[in-house]
Amino acid sequence: MTGNTKVVIIDMQPISPAVGGGRQRLLGLYHALGTGIEATYVGSYDWAGESLRDQQLTPGLREIVVPLSDEHHAAAQASAAAMDGRVVIDCLFSTQVHLSPRFLETAAARIADADIVVFSHPWAYPPLAEKLRPEQLVVYDSQNVESVLRTDLHADLGECAIPVLRNVVSDEYALCCRADLVLACSPDDRETFSRLFDLPMAKIRVVPNGIFAFNRPRPDAHAIARARARLGIAEKHVCLFVGSNYGPNNDAARFIATELALSMPDVRFAIVGGCGTAVANLPLSANVSVTGVLDEEEKGLWLDSADIALNPLAQGSGTSIKMFDFMAAFLPVVTTAPGARGIANTGKPAYCEASLGRTRDAVRSLLADEAQRLEIAESARRL
After folding, report:
1. What is the pTM of this model?
2. Residue 113: strand, helix, or coil
């Protein structure tokens, strides 16, 4: 092999802005693969109305984002209507992307020029499989075990979900079989892939999610006071949840707004990110702040202001990247077991685990014990 090694990463979302766990993983893993490696990302938008984007995102990573066609979006909307309004443009991408030939042409052109082809999520693999060459290294960079996660999310719909779930399993199985290497977010996901698809463990490597953890200093008392003043917070204690517009995050936001906040009117509860749409039409108590998506400076104010971070997820796969944001910000986290999935909590506790039914008691206990909050926060930052 001569010259630079060329890597193409293919998915159906943009990377920038890097909001949400999926985009953060993409930026983190591929922004600086190293000297002599040229990385190009080909993605799209799962919403209409955007234009073509082609930018050098970092010195080592080019981002090309190709809009999907109107026909593709119309087909996806019809599929969502058949699934009780649930967004399944990703789950059915492999069957509908023929309606977006420009995306396929762009991805195929980058594959033709690549030494290594990475599929982040399995959705784009089947329609591009025939474009791969035998000598190329093919990687499945999984963000979840999609076959398990999507079944958890949609099986309650019964018969109408079966074709969608069958397509997810078929796409993921096909990519796992073709890939030379499967990257899993956690040891649990690695074991699940091996059992579910009969893959040799040697083919699967754990590549954990991460964040740009040390970009912000630990806030002192003055910084906390300034942040709370700017946000207009009057309550003594603040609990923070951050999440994108994604089913498990939306459920967590509703739980916080309709159960935790009502039972603790003396505590300020902040719901940050796209998950706020899930509670936008609910009658909210005065101690709930729903901010929508924030830039990093505004998000930093809420991180500085919080006493506790919350992660009351009821389901999920991979790892929850928001946990690392909270931990790096010196915040003690009250989380469910699904929220803490894939994180090794060794030595002194780095978070407080509680079921949904016991979350309120755990929050109350932690708010009443400043020394324990500090101890958990220190352990979290070290981990």
Report:
1. 0.73
2. coil
